[in-house]
Automatic annotation (TrEMBL):
Protein name (record): ChrR-like cupin domain-containing protein
Organism whose genome encodes this protein: Conexibacter arvalis
Top-level taxon: Bacteria
Domain ChrR-like cupin as annotated: residue spans: 15-86, 125-228
One Pfam family cited in the UniProt record for this chain: Cupin_7
Amino acid sequence: MPTIVDHPVQLLPEQVAALAWEPLSAGVHARVLAASSESGAQTRMLRLAGGARLEPLDARLWQELYVLDGEVAIAGRVHRAGSYLCWRPGDAVPIEARADGATVLQLEDAGARIRKPAVALTAEEVEAMPWQPMAGRSAGFYEKVLSEGPCGSKTHLVKIEPLGDGAPNHRHAELHDHGEEMLALEGCYFSGEERERHAAGTYTNNPPGTHHGPFEFSEPYCCLEVKNYA
């Protein structure tokens, strides 16, 4: 939860895989990536067995869902891997896994300035969205905006490509006033002066005021990035 976690979280793929799956309800297990005991906000992976049903748990929080694998049925529509949904506080609906089960990334957050619109995008709808050049970034940075609020909070897919001559692309070190979460979906990147490698499956959570970077991208890279203002 970018708006309430008070220290950075960085989990490499092997560290994410080492986290325990805790039982949540019948057929549903949760792997918590970051959480706040103060507000109840949290980010976690949910693993649903075939036919398992998850009811909304906290009506106070904004909820976002990104399907990582399998299929879920939500409000009469089937959402496969790559689907994205966003609910305002109190509006979330039950999630039911299809026969083969599913794994989803669930983000629950609190903040008066999140104010993202309710969205329910199937994977097909996300795939049909064109990649747009990212404003304020150099060549090779593209995005698909999934949900964006009037105060600057935004959830988007980010794609970064090496430069045309094959040289790595770069992103300078950053310091900003919003919280930021990221799950690497494809490719890898290097961060920091030590050039630590982060492969697909890496999860990071940077609270407001966290200095992070610089970054280097030597191969095509894609991530889900969530920016929220408190």
